Amino acid sequence: MDITSWIDSVKFDGKGLVPAVVQDADDGALLMVAYMNKEALTETLQTKRGVFFSRSRNKLWRKGEESGNVQELKSMALDCDKDCVLIKVKQIGGAACHTGRRSCFFHHVQEDGALEIKGEQLFDPQKIYKK
Amino acid sequence: MDITSWIDSVKFDGKGLVPAVVQDADDGALLMVAYMNKEALTETLQTKRGVFFSRSRNKLWRKGEESGNVQELKSMALDCDKDCVLIKVKQIGGAACHTGRRSCFFHHVQEDGALEIKGEQLFDPQKIYKK
To answer: CA of B81, closest CA in chain A: separation in Å?
Structure first.
């Protein structure tokens, strides 16, 4: 059996994608949610790094290919309906979000209906991403 | 400002939905991923319970309305792109998955490409869900 054989059982949506939840393997923090197609799933398994499909750029997105902040794959799981993937990773550089924060989920809903931004910026996006 | 005023900034997809990641508020375990529309987001905030939109049944899904296993809302956050929601909850009954397991993500990818089912069944679905 090939390492990628289970991918045949994944239920991709009409665009060939599944949501992928990325969690810190050490403490379970939710780092980001992105999408994977069959190719991204396969490459994630084969390279042991987080690889996604960018819907905005419409191409494979090897997380960290520009910033160096790759995600080392620790484990992978599929949900009951086989239409959502969980990957647990070690996030190199500490920040998964393109804004420089550890987690993309930094808009915290307050009791009064406001969104409060919490989360230290671990890097300066302008220095990391070149035009 | 109304408690739901931030919902106006959420970027729903073409079907009016956003993915909602549900995490255990205590230990960060990923319990499930479902979808919310504007009504589900609003009701989740107002009732302090996890309310989703069922794509298969095409209607609002008040989690636990049949099983009693409701999700008490502890906090809510939005990601950088404002197109994905995180809710942290206390899962009553201990199991979020309709199969009776704590987490929906019980298909664990093995080194040989097989999926191994891990996760104790905390309830018997046939006893909980009536036809």
So the answer is: 8
Strand, helix or coil for residue A21: strand
d(Cα A11, Cα A60) in Å, to the nearest integer? 19
Residue A30 contacts residue A105 (beta carbons within 8 Å): yes
> Over chain B, what is the mean pLDDT?
95
Question: Which has the closest alpha carbon to A115: B70, B5, B117, B54?
Answer: B5
**Which class would CATH give B15-120?**
alpha beta
Task: Report domain extents, chain A.
Answer: 5-120
pLDDT of B96 higher than 70: yes
The nearest CA of chain B is from the CA of A106 a distance in Å of 6
Q: What is the pLDDT of residue B131?
A: 55
List, for residues A27-51, the tens digit of each pLDDT value. 999 999 999 999 999 999 999 999 9
CATH of domain A5-120: 3.10.20.810
Task: Point out the residue among B32, B108, B114 whose CB comes nearest to the CB of A77.
Answer: B108
Residues of A within 8 A of B107 (CB-CB) are 6, 77-80, 82
- Its pTM stands at 0.96
